[in-house]
Amino acid sequence: MSRTFEELLAEAEEVSVAGWDFSWLDGRATEERPSWGYQQLMSDRLATVSAALDVQTGGGEVLAGAARLPPAMVATESWPPNVAKATELLHPRGAIVVADPDEPPLPFADEAFDLVTSRHPVTAWWSEIARVLRPGGTYLAQHVGHSSVFELVEFFLGPQPEEVRRARHPDDERAAAEAAGLRVVDLRFERLRTEFFDVGAVVYFLRKVIWMVPGFTVERHRDRLRELHERIERDGPFVAHSTRFLIEARKPA
């Protein structure tokens, strides 16, 4: 017997959204993965350098999956629950987690790192990335692209203006990286199918990815959530499309 609308909401409101682990959504939502396999690419690079920085590490889950960390490994994170979670995961690996507001400047000296990585940064502060990289150093990251999951965003917020839909476009990120003095050596973009199988999955997702629908709460958006629940019950999974791009930028030697 399927759970009621109220039961799905209550369950999704109570579960913790700390960290960057989405395993609670197993069986309730799916998302295609980019073909390039970011975590393996990152892991391979980390094994070849002596000092690296992972920016906006979340709960440290992606970095903790690397097979080998360099002798000097630092991660930054701004959200206190994630700082605690990342510390718990990464300290046993010898990595230092620094609480940082995710705004310039990065709290490190010039030319401190051979490699800077990031998975899904909210903002890439390109001038700061360039500053902390050693000559010949590399930024390797997977970014969320423009209009990601906007079918869901616009279900709650209505049609968005073009400047909002274009935010985080890979062409604009390339231009910003180059303006900071970096040379983009790889840039790949993919649009990936995402499905939500029940309204609880949507509530969990929007509680966790808080910038998608700013100010989202179950109470504030209850009417739209009920419409979404009825639509899923009638038509099947709610389908959206996430966007991702891999970017590799090098600081001239």
TrEMBL record:
<dbReference type="InterPro" id="IPR013216">
    <property type="entry name" value="Methyltransf_11"/>
</dbReference>
<protein>
    <recommendedName>
        <fullName>Methyltransferase type 11 domain-containing protein</fullName>
    </recommendedName>
</protein>
<dbReference type="GO" id="GO:0008757">
    <property type="term" value="F:S-adenosylmethionine-dependent methyltransferase activity"/>
</dbReference>
<keyword id="KW-0614">Plasmid</keyword>
<dbReference type="InterPro" id="IPR029063">
    <property type="entry name" value="SAM-dependent_MTases_sf"/>
</dbReference>
<dbReference type="Pfam" id="PF08241">
    <property type="entry name" value="Methyltransf_11"/>
</dbReference>
<feature type="domain" description="Methyltransferase type 11">
    <location>
        <begin position="53"/>
        <end position="140"/>
    </location>
</feature>
<dbReference type="InterPro" id="IPR052939">
    <property type="entry name" value="23S_rRNA_MeTrnsfrase_RlmA"/>
</dbReference>
